[in-house]
């Protein structure tokens, strides 16, 4: 551990190092965000629905079981709210 600052008792050099690293990463994150925005704009220019693309990307981050559980709950809620038409009984 670095020598602590006499007034605060904190290792000022180590703290400064962490803060500067975080600041650099925040700058990179901003740059990457701008790059992602550009890719979405390019996809939109080619006729893709970027709102749906964002949903697809979100779904790809989840495993199959998690997606299936969410789909089941969504279906349950939609039925409860009358958002899904009732299916007619098959003719026997």
Automatic annotation (TrEMBL):
InterPro entries: GapR-like, GapR-like_DNA-bd. It holds the Pfam family GapR_DNA-bd. GO terms for molecular function: DNA binding. It comes from the Bacteria. Residues 12-82 form the GapR-like DNA-binding domain. Belongs to the UPF0335 family. This is UPF0335 protein HW532_18615.
């Amino acid at each position: 551990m670095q020598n602590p600052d006499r007034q605060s008792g904190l290792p000022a050099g180590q703290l400064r190092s962490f803060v500067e690293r975080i600041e650099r990463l925040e700058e990179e994150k901003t740059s990457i965000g701008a790059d992602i925005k550009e890719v979405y704009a390019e996809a939109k220019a080619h006729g893709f629905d970027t709102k749906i693309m964002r949903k697809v990307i979100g779904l790809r981050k989840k495993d199959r079981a998690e997606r299936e559980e969410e789909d089941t709950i969504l279906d349950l809620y939609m039925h409860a709210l009358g958002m899904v038409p009732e299916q007619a009984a098959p003719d026997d």
